[in-house]
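step=encode ok
step=design start
structure_in=
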């Protein structure tokens, strides 16, 4: 698992692929730009002109990894790209994606969002039959499997076989020199959508915000369990394991996806606003105003304000120009990482009773620093509402939650968390409210980090976290 020193959960990965455009690498670059929120550790693009494959990848943000002249060599009509935050495998260049390998005159490249839960077993089996792994990524196993299957089968049959061997969460883009394959796991944990380019080519991306940026028209989601093979002949769609019940990751709606995206058939902005409306129905508080810590609780705060009639204010100002700082503050400058980004408006907040809306509390350290900054600014009462239930369980499907020992809701009662954060009151949205905001049946979603019911059994000899919800 990747290391996550911050108290906020980390985005997982984003994928974008283009088929049938002469500037496929550039369009992929813009798609990745729109998906930057899904991973900031590394970025990469692999491109093919039908016979030659080129790639460029490095550690850093999309804007840091690619320079104008990189695109001189990235020529071709077919490209896949990836932005990464490591949930499996260490954070270094060898683990940056797309992962590309040559085998018997063919090239295979893969860009993966998700986590394979049977990776230990897969890797052992592949290594026993002679595969030599270059990285610690679970995604590399997909390349090895596909290359082996392609020795004896055509691409469609090989993809079918690979889909039947891998388990867990995957929204995958795979390319050969001539074909692009898009695959989504049978539960559809992570989003993946298909769009059409103005020139008739195709785009597949993690979120619709990537389509908007390159003026592609949204066609539909790649369905859970569906595989698409895109070539000059068009799109071939099939379901290697048949259609199964979905388990969409509800945390994508709560936290990860961009609010201007539509995922799982729902607009993220509207979903978050609705959670705020339901919070207002579930919890009435007498306060002077409601405010988010930008941007985490923005949309739920709008919903809460409109439903409760309590005014919405921005009592904390965000510095939008924070880059990476390599200069560490002295020990005496505690809570530096919070203060460098967010600063309370002291003269406005002094003596007020405020409701803070947050989208999650993971370890609790960020929330604690935020509350401390408000106390320093003279706020009289601080009530915190969370737009999801307590997160008591780790995720095995591609989200970098810490293990249960570090999840504050798995270790403390709600009253203890309230005291730890130094709040006047604390309330979490109910599980029913979380689902109600979607307008879809509960069974549609994975809710495991809240209720401990894992839709696909994880390999616990590989994932050392302990199962079960201790929040009671
Ligand atoms: S466990 Fe939580 S974060 Fe992971 S897929 Fe399920 S809902 Fe999403």
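sequence_out=
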């Amino acid at each position: 698992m990747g290391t996550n020193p911050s108290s906020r959960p980390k985005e997982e990965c984003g994928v974008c692929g283009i088929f049938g455009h002469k500037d496929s690498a550039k369009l992929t670059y813009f798609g990745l730009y729109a998906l930057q929120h899904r991973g900031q550790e590394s970025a990469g693009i692999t491109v093919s002109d039908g016979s030659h494959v080129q790639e460029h990848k490095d550690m850093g943000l999309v804007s840091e990894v690619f320079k104008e002249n990189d695109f001189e060599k990235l020529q071709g009509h077919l490209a896949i790209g990836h932005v990464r935050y490591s949930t499996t495998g260490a954070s270094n260049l060898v683990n940056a994606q797309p992962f590309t390998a040559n085998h018997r005159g063919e090239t295979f490249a893969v860009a993966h969002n998700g986590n394979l839960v049977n990776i230990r077993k897969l890797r052992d089996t592949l290594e026993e039959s002679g595969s030599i792994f270059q990285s610690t990524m679970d995604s590399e196993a997909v390349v090895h499997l596909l290359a082996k299957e392609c020795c004896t089968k055509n691409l469609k049959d090989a993809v079918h076989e690979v889909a039947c061997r891998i388990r867990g969460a995957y929204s995958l883009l795979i390319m050969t020199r001539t074909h692009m394959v898009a695959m989504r796991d049978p539960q559809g944990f992570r989003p993946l959508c298909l769009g059409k380019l103005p020139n008739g080519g195709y785009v597949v991306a993690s979120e619709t915000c990537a389509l908007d940026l390159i003026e592609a028209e949204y066609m539909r989601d790649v369905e859970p369990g569906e595989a698409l093979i895109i070539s000059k002949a068009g799109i071939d769609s099939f379901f290697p394991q048949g259609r199964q019940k979905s388990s969409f990751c509800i945390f994508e709606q709560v936290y990860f996806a961009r609010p201007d995206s539509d995922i799982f058939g729902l607009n993220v902005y509207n979903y978050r606003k609705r959670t705020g409306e339901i919070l207002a129905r579930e919890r009435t508080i007498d306060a002077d105003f409601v405010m988010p810590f930008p941007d985490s609780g923005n949309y739920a705060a709008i919903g809460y304000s409109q439903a409760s009639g309590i005014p919405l204010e921005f009592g904390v100002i965000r510095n939008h120009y924070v880059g990476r700082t390599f200069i560490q503050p002295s020990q005496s400058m505690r809570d530096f990482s919070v203060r460098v980004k967010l600063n309370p408006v002291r003269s406005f907040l002094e003596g007020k009773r405020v409701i803070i809306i947050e989208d999650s509390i993971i370890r609790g350290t960020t929330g604690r620093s935020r509350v401390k900054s408000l106390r320093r600014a003279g706020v009289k009462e601080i009530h915190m509402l969370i737009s999801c239930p307590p997160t008591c369980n780790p995720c095995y499907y591609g989200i970098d939650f810490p293990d249960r020992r570090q999840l504050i809701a798995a270790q403390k009662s709600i009253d203890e968390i309230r005291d730890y954060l130094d709040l006047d009151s604390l309330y979490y949205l109910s599980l029913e409210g979380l689902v109600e905001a979607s307008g879809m049946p509960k069974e549609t979603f994975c809710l495991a980090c809240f209720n401990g019911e894992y839709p696909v059994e994880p390999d616990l000899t590989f994932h050392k976290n302990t199962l079960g919800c201790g929040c009671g």
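step=design ok
step=annotate ok -> The mean pLDDT is 90.
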